Amino acid sequence: MRDLYRGLAVVAVVAAAAVTLVVVLPSEPDEVVAGPVTAPPAAPSSSGSTAPPSPAAGDTPAEPATPKPGATLAPGYTAMEALYADPRVPKLTGKVKRMSLSAPSRRVVKDKRTGLAVPDLPKPWKTHGAAPFTTKQVLPKVRGTSLRGMFVTCPLPIMEQESARDTALLAARWTLNHHPQGAKISWLASQPVKRGWMLVYRVTYGKHTSRAAVVIVDGGMSKPGLAFVTVPDAQRKQWRDISRVVSGVRVLG
Question: Per DSSP, what are the bridge partners of residue 22?
Fold first, then answer.
């Protein structure tokens, strides 16, 4: 019996030692089982702002979405960059000459929406329904074509730029909407006018051309005023009236 009790005592000691070992052995860290853990947010700075949490290991930062022109412009994407990228509109260099301007016409059309007075062109020009412009003069229709001379005014239909020259360039590009498809510009004259800028240019489409001009003038309204004239080659006798237009646009007063 003494040997039996001694044996039980040894077993009890071994069992107690095993329990002790289980208690003192450290458990496996959670990170090893669960994988990397995202770092906690940094402590607030003295300004009170909190730094964003660091990305988890192995995460790939999302790339920013590319904005589409015409909706929200991306930083650095400007109207002038779009102009320079347009193959229909060549760069306006210092080689483009100025033109002599004649005395302004005494007969004028008053456009109170733009704050401008513009030439009332002689026959065969005639006043026409203005919409969507604010004033409009046209040449008679030519048999066999839908194109005819047109002289209109309206508040600036495009975004105004810091310089009147750049604004005029964008306006000239906009006028291609009123020429046949595939039309391209070549510059004939460029120069400042009082409170604005004027451009004269040739518009080529297929085997035909038009002469055209835009004049941008600040008439004291919320937007500068635009005067735009275009005459197709079928009515080339009236190309001389383009000089009347660019010479005669002025502030109403």
Answer: none
The contacts of residue 62 (CB under 8 Å, 6+ apart) are none
SS3 238: helix
Confidence band for 42, pLDDT divided at 50, 70 and 90: very low
Q: Between 3.40.50.2000, 3.30.43.10, 3.40.1000.10, 1.10.3080.10, what CATH number should domain 89-251 receive?
A: 3.40.1000.10
- Find the Cα–Cα–Cα–Cα dihedral 25, 30, 36, 42, rounded to 10°: -100
Distance CA 209, CA 119 (A): 24
More confidently predicted of 46 and 223: 223
Nearest partner of 150 among 176, 126, 170, judged by Cα: 126
152 burial type by CB count under 10 A (0-12 exposed, 13-18 middle, 19+ buried)? buried
pLDDT at 253: 80
Given this model, what pLDDT does residue 99 score? 94
For the ranges 5-14, 29-38, 59-68, 241-250, the one whose mean pLDDT is highest: 241-250
Which residue type sits at 151? F
Q: Check whether 10 has a pLDDT greater than 60.
A: no
